[in-house]
Description:
single chain, 152 residues, alpha+beta, Beta-Lactamase, 6-stranded antiparallel beta sheet, 22% helix
Amino acid sequence: xxxxxxxxxxxxxxxxxxxxxxxxxxxxxxxxxxxxxxxxxxxxxxxxxxxxxxxxxxxxxxxxxxxxxxxxxxxxxxxxxxxxxxxxxxxxxxxxxxxxxxxxxxxxxxxxxxxxxxxxxxxxxxxxxxxxxxxxxxxxxxxxxxxxxxxx
Length: 152
């Protein structure tokens, strides 16, 4: 016969303008979540260094293993972004500034866009990826951005 137990406890409800853990660092909290996520996602800090990336995010973006990119700048050469022209040229500096993870940092707002990611090898096909980024705030200031990816 099945046995069911019920336990009641008081629910913690944060007041407006406070976080559940006072003095907590949002980037640090999101880091552990992103690292364990099944979904392709990426967390960068305000200096565009990779703080955390999911294994599926590394696979989708052709970055290798998460341990290889954590602590490195997002655009240090590991992530190869291409334009959508037939020539498949690399993105120019003004175009790079508009990719969702960086746009969320600079604007402090939600950003969304398509990215064309070069395959891991010359024979591998490029991937078109939908990216949705949100700024991560610490003490009211943009401290990083969190991006979720979906292959199109």
